Amino acid sequence: MPIDGISQLIAVTQLKAQNANDQALHGATKQRELLGKQQTLRAVQRTFSELTRMEQQSAMTELQLKLGAFRKTLSHPAAALLDQWLEWAAQHR
What distance in Å separates the CA atoms of residue 90 and residue 15, rounded to the nearest whole number? Predict the structure, then answer.
């Protein structure tokens, strides 16, 4: 009879160890999935940041072209005043 009790105790211990191993494996799998999602999110953020920067550069180039065309329509004193204002604005942004 005592051997039967020991066998049952061993079986229960092995079952608990197996459950603990299964939970640990599940936790590790979940952590890997979350790391993958985090890496994907960071890649998307970098792409968005780069696109935003490119859009800003494109808008700035377009604005400079329009400003250059507008400057050509001004008289010399008005163009000089515009240049002074642009210099001031560049220093104070």
Answer: 72
